[in-house]
Amino acid sequence: MNNFSFYSPTYFAFGRDQELEAGALVKRFGGSKALIHYGGGSVVRSGLLDRVKASLDGAGVPYVELGGVRPNPRSGLVYQGIDLCRREGVDFILAVGGGSTIDSSKAIAAGVVYEGDFWDFYAGKYIEKALPVGTILTIAASGSEGSPDSVITNENGMFKRGATGDAIRPRFSILDPALTQTLPPYQTACGITDIMAHLYERYLTNTPEVEVTDRMIEALLLTMIHEGPRVIEDPNNYDARANIMWAGMMAHNNSCGVGRSQDWNSHNIEHELSALYDCAHGAGLAVTMPAVFTYVMQHDVMRFAQIAVRVWGCQMDFAHPEVTAKAGIEALRRFLISIGMPKNFAELGAKEEDIPKLVDVLCNGDGRPGSISGFVTLNEEDCANIYRLML
Ligand code: NZQ
Ligand code: ZN
């Protein structure tokens, strides 16, 4: 195991009606005037936004509002949010929604206290300072409620990049599984897929002797395989939603990723798809993961065979471990299709003729060196081959 430091100071309030504590928590974590940031309207329709406002009113915390975050959040609204916060003297950002709203909130939080262009952080500059962020999560998926990351799409070129820094880890996150019961099945399945991807991207490591985090990842994947179909069948299953929600947080706050190298090639390859076609991140990952894993399997067949046996219950073929490894990838693919995820480029709305453009932005955009690296380093030809495997 590698040396590591791990600092994850988010306060979690988990369970029914915890959103009623929003006002008290903003105050407790230093907010005297909040920006309530939200998405395209689900929190208005569900009545959540009104309950949150009432909670802030009750705690005597004034606020301004900015809605309209789109899935795959855009840079334009971030600039608007930064201006609004500066004008109004906002000192706390409260995200009410999913990963897109939380990521947009984190970008605003970093941008308000930075003199340059906030995009500098998405071009590689570490975020040292930001306004405090709190979240009220409405979809189990991105893990942004406990992560130091934010992903934004630059409208000037439509490419998607991530920024990171402990300063944007949420100070608190309210996780009420009941809030996720209004999700359409497709969005629920996208979330399940994203959570599983966060686990796979950590499982694919070149660091030996990482039994504890291997086992944690396997446990969380088994949980998703058990609870995913239950919640697709019965969207009101609170307990299944609760297990998925906490698994989603643990999958991505990096408690399972410390002390080991990680992959993230599937995420990078997917991000170009959701940037160009505006597909859901989870849906893009459902098509991307089996293709990437098939392509890189030979790099460490035994690791793929191990996850196949321990997570998917495949029989170990000691004479031909690649057969076991492949069976595990196929089991993942079938599982994702069974919960309603797309299986190829066409179902995502992606086009074969765009592959050269996707590869160019992926490997050369924002100063990248003609390749991406993770579990293995993939050059432009590798990435084109992987996109072709998705056809
Ligand atoms: O905008 P509204 O109207 O709220 O509707 C949203 C949106 O259409 C809807 N929704 C959310 N909660 C709902 C609901 N509808 C009904 N009832 C509810 N309770 O679901 C749709 C998707 O929302 P979004 O926030 O986009 O989903 P998600 O949480 O999957 O976030 C995706 C974004 O997170 C990024 C992705 O790249 C993508 O841009 N990621 C962020 C990460 C991070 N910050 O650490 C890591 C991830 O790997 C990921 O890349
Ligand atoms: Zn993800």
C-alpha-based Rg, rounded: 20 Å
Give the N-to-C terminal Cα separation.
Answer: 38 Å
Helical/strand content category: alpha/beta
Low-confidence stretches: none
Spatial order of strands in the largest sheet? 1-8-5-4-2-3
List the helices and strands and how they pair.
Elements: E1 11-14, H1 22-28, E2 34-38, H2 42-45, H3 48-59, E3 63-66, H4 75-88, E4 92-97, H5 99-112, E5 133-137, E6 149-154, E7 159-164, E8 172-175, H6 185-203, H7 211-233, H8 238-252, H9 265-277, H10 281-296, H11 301-310, H12 321-338, H13 345-348, H14 355-364, E9 371-373, E10 377-379, H15 380-389
Parallel strand pairs: 1-8, 2-3, 2-4, 4-5, 5-8
Antiparallel strand pairs: 6-7, 9-10
The structure holds 5,6-dihydroxy-NADP and zinc ion (ZN).
5,6-dihydroxy-NADP binds next to helix 2, helix 5, strand 6, helix 6 and helix 10.
Give a concise summary.
By secondary structure, this protein is of the alpha/beta class. It has helices at 22-28, 42-45, 48-59, 75-88, 99-112, 185-203, 211-233, 238-252, 265-277, 281-296, 301-310, 321-338, 345-348, 355-364, 380-389; strands at 11-14, 34-38, 63-66, 92-97, 133-137, 149-154, 159-164, 172-175, 371-373, 377-379.
Features:
single chain; 391 residues; alpha/beta; six-stranded parallel β-sheet; two-stranded antiparallel sheet; 10 strands; 48% helix; binds 5,6-dihydroxy-NADP; binds zinc ion
